[in-house]
Hints:
Largest sheet: 2 strands, antiparallel
Helix content: over 70%
Number of domains: 1
Oligomer: single chain
Shape: elongated
CATH architecture: Orthogonal Bundle
Amino acid sequence: MRAPLGSWSMAFAAAMLATILAVIIVVPLLPFYDPYEQDIMSGLLRPGTEQDGRLYVLGTDFLGRDMLSRIALAGRVSLMIALSAVAISLVIGVLLGLLAGWFRGPVENLVMGLADLQLAVPRILVVIAVTAVLGPDLVTLTILLGLTSWVSYGRVARAMALSLREREFVLSATTQGAGTGWNLRRHVLPNVMPQMLILASYELGQIIVIEAALSYLGLGVQPPVPSWGLMIAEGQQFLEVEPYLSLLPGLAIFMLVAGAQFLSQRFTPEGAADADLTALRRRR
Length: 284
């Protein structure tokens, strides 16, 4: 019996994500790991080349730096920025969304007005403009990405708070003297967080792509710290002779983002329903 297409896609996504995470986590623990060591005589070695008793699994760049080590460190930098930005936007979005959905009225109008105002201007343009003024910096970039990514969390949290505030278990707690803070903390927030975490997995991929795009333009991570976007930009001048310099970091971005996106769909209500239906068909 052939396995359903959904099972193969999930397995492929899990394999991609596991592979790139293994590179990011394991490679820095290896003895040859050094993303900054330069050796001009070993420049532009192709993947799989062995020289001076050392195997360059993914080759070297034009300065002789090990590509595997640089891709691993760039992945750590991207994940650090993305996870920090997601944490900032998650806290802000959930807090504002819950307040808007619970109190409604002027509070809701204010929060949703801010959300509509931010949606009116593309996020990437705001980040580019502010970064160009303040200068590229990891902390600045992380805070900017976090402050410009809260709207999706806020809108979903508001919608769920509007529904939950009318549920029987919340009304029962209110009639027994429970205050707003207690209801939000004990009843509303636990029911909102699973959806927020699913949304966070989607936003994580978006932020990684935005960070890579900014680094590609020279407005993100600055040398000598490696970044996948910066590595793609540096390898462009060698595309005709050594395309792996740009293809490898591009592939790393694809594996991380696509793997996270495909797996996050498994935990959405629609994805869970499809998985249950597949399991039922197998039993039959």
